[in-house]
Each structure stands twice: as structure tokens, then as C-alpha cells.
Amino acid sequence: MKNQETLNPGKLRITIILSVIASILAIPLIAMQFTNEVNWTLSDFVIAGILLLSTGLAIELVIRNLKTGTLRTVILVAILLALFLIWAELAVGIFGTPFAGS
Q: Which of 102, 52, 40, 42 is closest to 80 using CA atoms?
């Protein structure tokens, strides 16, 4: 019989979130071994990790607290949109803020 810890869906989702973050961050790390076009510093990895972790935890919070409905969908879409806009701004500076990476 399985114990209660292995059946906890919240812990499973947190493990999945951390695994996905590690997989996403492994892509530029591996690419840096084969090309000079990808040139991330330690701070790039830290910032990307923080951004992905905060997004994953925000999504987990919404999933735990809002069971169904349009509000849940709207909030999840807003979280993902914020992730993509912040990532794009940090990468290429689409809005021209001082945080732009170019």
C-alpha cells in the first residue's frame, strides 16, 4: 500500500515544475557547448530560473485555489503572457526598458 506522501498531487506537480525548469535551462547550457551563438552567463541562468520558478509556482497557486471556471483560465493566460513578455524584454528589449538584454 502506498503511503500518503506518494499520493500527494501537490508535491508531484512541484516535482514536475522543477523538472521542466531544469529541462528548459539545459537547452542553452547544451547549446553553448556546440556554438558560440548562445552565450549565457551565470546571471542569465539565475534570472531565467527565477522567472520560470516564479511562473510555475504562480500557476500552481492558481491551480490549487481555483478549481474550475473562466477566472482560472484568464489568470493562467495572464501569468503565461507576463512570462513571455518579460522573457522577450530581457532577451531583446521589445519595450526599450533599461532591463533589455541587448
A: 52
